[in-house]
Structure formats: C-alpha cells, structure tokens
Amino acid sequence: MNAPLSHVEVMRSQLGRARGLGAGGSGVGHWWAERVSAASLLPLSTWFIVQMFRLGGADHKDVVSWGGKPINATMLTALIITTFYHAQLGLQVIVDDYVHGKAHLPTRILVKIGTSLIGLLGVFAVIKLVATASSRKS
C-alpha cells in the first residue's frame, strides 16, 4: 500500500515535483534579496539626496573634496553597488516572466553583464574622485 502524500506534495505541480522546485526553491532567496536590497537603498538614497541638497551650488573643487572623504566615498560605493544589484534582481524577474524560449538565457546573461558593468563604472568613478581629491591635497 502506498503511503499517503503529504499536503505539500499534493499542492505542488507535476513539473515542480520533477524539477524539485517550488516554494522552497530559489525564489524565496531571490525575494528576500530584493527586499533586503530595497530596504538598504532607503537610508542610502536618503543620505545621497540630503548630500546633493547640501552641495547644491557648490563648485567642482568642493564636490571633489566632499567625494574624497572616506565616509562619503564609502557611502557612494555602497549606494552604487546596492542600486545595480537591486536593478539586476528586478530585471531578472522581468526576464523570467516575459522572455521565453531560446532568448531567455542570453537575455538573463546580458542583464547580469550589463548591470555589473554599469555598476563597475560607477565604482571606478568614485575611485577616480577619491584619487583626484587625494592629489589636490598633496
């Protein structure tokens, strides 16, 4: 006699059982990553907006000096990395929902590469800002 299926197994689709995916699959981790990155963007974005209002009307030298401070450079880098990571997560959901067939995998790869490269450019811009500020102090 077969053992009765648990309630969870009955609710899962046949395809989900075959792939071993479902509510306990990677979707939960992705969902949490989106929420954590969004929550961390709130204080980072607020900090950035306040700083931009404070720098309103400042000349280039003052902005470079501001960006060269370790706390500001660190906060800018955290904002850039978190923003593009969050964007990558959101775009991945869009690709998973709306791109099907042979285009799905290349599109996912392009999204990851594109968001990573643009984020990397932002981080390099902060590094250049710090280097410029350091050279002006010398």
TrEMBL record:
Query: GO annotations under biological process?
Result: tricarboxylic acid cycle
Give the Gene3D superfamilies listed for this entry. Answer: Fumarate reductase/succinate dehydrogenase, transmembrane subunit
Identify the CDD domains for this entry.
Answer: SQR_TypeC_SdhD_like
Q: What membrane topology term does the record carry?
A: Multi-pass membrane protein
Q: Which cofactor does it need?
A: heme
Q: Which residues cross the membrane?
A: 31-50, 71-89, 109-131
Whether tRNA processing counts among this entry's keywords is: no
InterPro entries the UniProt entry points to: SQR/QFR_C/D, Succ_DH_anchor, SuccDH_FuR_B_TM-su
- Single GO MF descriptor: metal ion binding
Can you quote a single GO CC term? membrane
Q: Where in the cell is it found?
A: Membrane
Claim: Transferase is one of the keywords in the record: no
What are the protein's UniProt keywords?
Electron transport, Heme, Iron, Membrane, Metal-binding, Transmembrane, Transmembrane helix, Transport, Tricarboxylic acid cycle
Hey, which pathway is this one from? Carbohydrate metabolism; tricarboxylic acid cycle
Instruction: Name the job this protein performs.
Output: Membrane-anchoring subunit of succinate dehydrogenase (SDH).
Subunit? Part of an enzyme complex containing four subunits: a flavoprotein, an iron-sulfur protein, plus two membrane-anchoring proteins, SdhC and SdhD.
Q: NCBIfam families of this UniProt entry?
A: succ_dehyd_anc
Q: What is this protein called?
A: Succinate dehydrogenase hydrophobic membrane anchor subunit
What organism does this protein naturally occur in?
Answer: Acetobacter cibinongensis
